[in-house]
Amino acid sequence: MTQGGQEQGCDGQNTAGLDVDDLDTALAQTELARLADILGRANVAYHREDAPVMPDAEFDALRLRNEAIEARFPDLIRPDSPARTIGAQPAEGFGKIHHARRMLSLANAFNADDVADFVTGLRRFLNLAEDALLVLTAEPKIDGLSLSLRYEQGFLVHAATRGDGETGEDVTANARTIADIPQRLTDVPDVLEVRGEVYMSHADFTALNARQAASDAKTFANPRNAAAGSLRQLDATITRARPLRFFAYAWGETSEPLAKTQTEAIARLGALGFTINPLFRRCESIDEMLNVYASIEAQRASLGYDIDGVVYKLDDLALQERLGLRSTTPRWAIAHKFPAELAWTELLGIDIQVGRTGALSPVARLRPVTVGGVVVSNATLHNEDYIAGRDSRGQPIRDGRDIRIGDWVEVYRAGDVIPKIRDIDPARRPATAQPYQLPETCPECGSPAIREPGDSVRRCTGGMICPAQAVERLKHFVSRAAFDIEGLGAKQVENFWRDGWISSPRDIFTLKDRFGPGQPRQLKNREGWGEKSALNLFDAIDDKRRIPLARLIFALGIRHVGETSANMLATHYGTWPAFRTAMADAQDENSPAYADLNSIDGVGPVMARSLITAFSAEGDEIDALAALLDIQPAVARASDSPVAGRTLVFTGTLERMTRAEAKARAESLGAKVAGSVSAKTDLLIAGPGAGSKAKKAADLGVEVIDEDQWLALIGAV
Questions:
Q1: What is the domain extent for residue 163?
Q2: Residue 141 catalytic?
């Protein structure tokens, strides 16, 4: 697969290789779109498919880059910003449970300075003096699957995974098979949601993989995947046979408070019969927090279960309530992550994978080595510059040392499947090792593989004649977020393509005419198919002819166009004819259609060019597909909040709440809060001392109100 840090825009600008300070507005917009796509796909792979595609450390680095760009360009924050995304939508096959209180993720700290900044931020938000006592708690961050257990009148009524934070998967029957989860509680609030982590111990994981291998069944990459895959079984008897465990560490909705502090609440959960982590500690200073972190890290290898950091939480629950929440994370907690783990092994070969957009991605084939409890045999090599020992600007990395087959390489990971290579050991390089050259022709179809000037990625030019691109695009077309055709998954797509039954998306919708009843070759006669299953597939395909405009746009697999971008485009143009006409007219960069396309919030020149190129190259094929479909217009969303969807800016001194509290309140009502005034600003809330922002708002004709008017507007007077 193409790793996130190496993609770039269609205009040849390698935004991934540019420092944040080197980005202008256009490049920042391109980079934010790239990061939203990469991190969105990584979230789905990790949270919904239990199949991580990048190491935690790389994911965290990309999120930090995204946050840094958003901080510098607040007006460019996207609706699908990774900073506002939790987990992934629930998988099909499970019932859905809406969380009474959202299940959030945690912000990350990576060093002592980050922890100090977190505590300083708490004091600033709460207007606490530097010497005022501020108590926090520290506990291991379990590497498992988040679970919420709802008890009513003391009885367990349902269990749900985190899902996308708002809605999770109903895994009640499976949760009831876990010994650590009580079925009934006494002396508890009428409603109590207990939250924690489902995990698998190292010993149980090793034994499970041995049993799986002995029966020729699927083995798991690590305990986290094993736990997630075991809990998310449609058959609860399978879950019952898996050795799952549960640590309780939080709560959701309660009909009455559990306690006044985090420490007391966790102790009460333990008294109720839940397993709580014995390494939970109360801390009264930053030094104590860091000492607990060091102690837990030193015990990490001997705990018998996977952890990937330490979580700090404000102890006083009233102060937690006052601090409130960001869009996806609480302000009163943070995860102090452990460094990625390392190992040395031999590079046996370099394989080339071809992705949906034609990118040639080199993957290191390694002598298997255990890294952090996981057997690793592959690692990403990003691109030919990385292999050659230089970055995208030609500057040396690894002191200019290239990577060659036969080298001993330092591999690091943080609990995921595909790790990275950090460095090589030049003293162990074989005398026969030769510099590696990425192929100039596609290994799948033989078409030229071209690296355009300024591009870090070499791409196959074969398009749909390239089998790798064709199959990956077809898989994308039928994926859950696209057409989601029941019975037509990745495996069926590969088989049908290999046998020449489908070569493009429109072929799916003529499958019945070509291989249905009355035809010489019929689907029902294929191995693994019968009359009923064939008819079910044809019916499922027909059911999906009626498709919302946004889903169709996403399903086309156009580079840089993700789910959120597709929704923005659909909302802007409304109907397929309007969108299709605009794409044709926008090929003239001097046309009103081109200007209109680039004016859409979230669409920059890179995405615009990608759309125009796709419709220019494949317009006839897309039109033929559209003729077989009933494409539904976009439906505008309504909201009761008076500020929902509006862009607000706060300036000056607010007297009845801190600026941070005002921003949090606005975001909770669906508003977007920017740091500077622009033509996109809808409303400026100005307190005493407002300066240049108020003047700029007046110049732009932006409405300006004071704090009392703001509170009246949101009904908080």
A1: 96-337
A2: yes
